[in-house]
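In response to reviewer comment 3 from the previous cycle, which asked for concrete evidence that the modeling workflow produces usable outputs, we include below a single protein chain processed end to end. The sequence was submitted unchanged, and the resulting structure tokens are shown without manual editing.
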Amino acid sequence: MKLVICAGPPTSGKTTVLKRIIQLLLNEGDKVAYLKIDVQYAEEDEILKKEFGIPTKKVYSGELCPDHCNVMVLGDAIEWAQKENVDYLMVETAGLCLRCSPYVDGCLGVVVLEETGGMNLPRKIGPMLSLADVAVVTKIDLVSQAEREVFRARIMSVTNQVTIIETDALHGIGLGGLVKKIKDTKDVSLPLYLRGNPPVGTCTICVGKKEVGWKSHFGVLRQLSGDGLFYRGE
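The workflow returned the following structure tokens.
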């Protein structure tokens, strides 16, 4: 079984891309399962299950960030998908942290970016892009060729290790390269390890302390005019 983890900012077109990919894989006789990880509301799993009749699951991260939740549940999700005897497990995560990497070693990491998100979007999303294998750029029909070239250059300024695929996903145009990448991915194997290093963020805010101002907190802290992070407490 092959594992694909798809992340990207809200409204970038992640579900539309995956919907097209799932259809293409099913047309070739492959079996696909889908997992949706979101914060508090999602219906994509129900839509895909109704349209394609594939096994789907949904997890709300709640008080965890979606990337944290992804790490927690992915082991169980792989066991579930293997029991369903599928060829591909597609994981769609909200990926809202912008500091964590949602990808694991042994998967195909796909980030979906919308061309209309602004020229500086590639510079703002951190490991979600820099540790991805493929960057799918959607909504290319809504901008000029010059804007497409600048956006592509901004992606390459962040990482030159990513394959860029430009697509009009709404009409299924330009996704053949992504299907080939998915099919060429190695089968997933356990144990799994997070790709990249998780952020340092041990602090009392994480455990529910609500006071504002670093003097009220312990752990890894930061001041407005300081030179970076420092540690306060035992």
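Residues 47 and 53 are 10 Å apart (CA to CA). We consider this sufficient to address the reviewer's concern, and the full set will be provided in the supplementary archive.
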